[in-house]
Amino acid sequence: MGVMTSAGRVHADEWASGANRFERPGEALFAARMDGRLIGACGLNIDPYTPAPGVGRVRHLYVLADYRRLGVGRRLVERVLDTARGRFERLRLSTQNPAAAQLYEQLGFERRIGAADHTHLMEIC
Questions:
Q1: 63 in a domain, yes or no?
Q2: 22 phi and psi, to 5 degrees?
Q3: Distances (CA, A) of 86 to 54, 89, 107, 117
Q4: What pTM value is reported for the model?
Q5: Which residues does residue 30 pair with via DSSP β-bridges, in sequence order?
Q6: CA distance between the termini of the chain
Q7: Domain holding 61: CATH number?
Q8: Tens of pLDDT along 20-49?
Q9: What residues make up the domain containing 58?
């Protein structure tokens, strides 16, 4: 399925160890497939970086390089947003990828400068 980044290995390790199974109330993990092949994934967790209630976190958006710029990432994040509505009051995420940041901002996330544990926020009340 292509080369897995070190971050991808960490997330796979979280799944294998049971540390993150996207199974707590309100959490979900979405996969995108094309011709039976897994080409992308994106998850929704209760934000582990804050004790505040009602805060979700967009996690692990990834689309295989050959399938980028086809709307796969957008559709995955839209599924996360649909699932988060009514379950969370706000969503946060962190990205250092300019293309991903642009996608999130197009979908309504606001860039947060100086926040220690996230780069983007969306109020979804």
A1: yes
A2: 55, 45
A3: 10, 8, 18, 23
A4: 0.84
A5: 42
A6: 38
A7: 3.40.630.30
A8: 668 888 999 999 999 999 999 999 999 999
A9: 6-123
